[in-house]
Every structure is written in C-alpha cells, then in structure tokens.
Design a protein that fits this description.
The chain is mostly helical. It is 42% helix and 0% strand. It has two helices and no strands. The N and C termini lie close together (11 Å). The model has no long low-confidence stretch (mean pLDDT 88).
Amino acid sequence: YVAFSPMANGFLTGRYTPDTKFEGSQDYRAGMPQYTKEGYHKAKALLELLQELSEQKQASMGQISLAWM
C-alpha cells in the first residue's frame, strides 16, 4: 500500500470507513478509492496490521503510519 500523503488522507488512522460521510463539496476524500467498499476491503489487512502494531506499541494508528513513512 502506497499512500501519496503521510496517512492516505486519514485512511491509515483507522478513523474512516466506506460509510463515512465527508462534509462539504471541498472534501475530495468522498471520491478516493480507499473509501469505496472495494478499496477498503483490499486494504483491510493493512488496517488490521496497523491496529495490532498500535496496540503493541501503545501508539495510535496514525503514529504508527507516520513512523512507517
């Protein structure tokens, strides 16, 4: 998984899912592939790994993502 921004526009924080409703016409995340059901399903294993690492290291998924970058 390669993110073009440090946390893939919030995706690697684990905070957002395909059910997330992004507010406003300026929030382009609504059209990003990682927020579609298919894209989310493809990256679910990565999110699970980040969750596991964050629990082991007592850090947030965002902190683990930034350390990875």
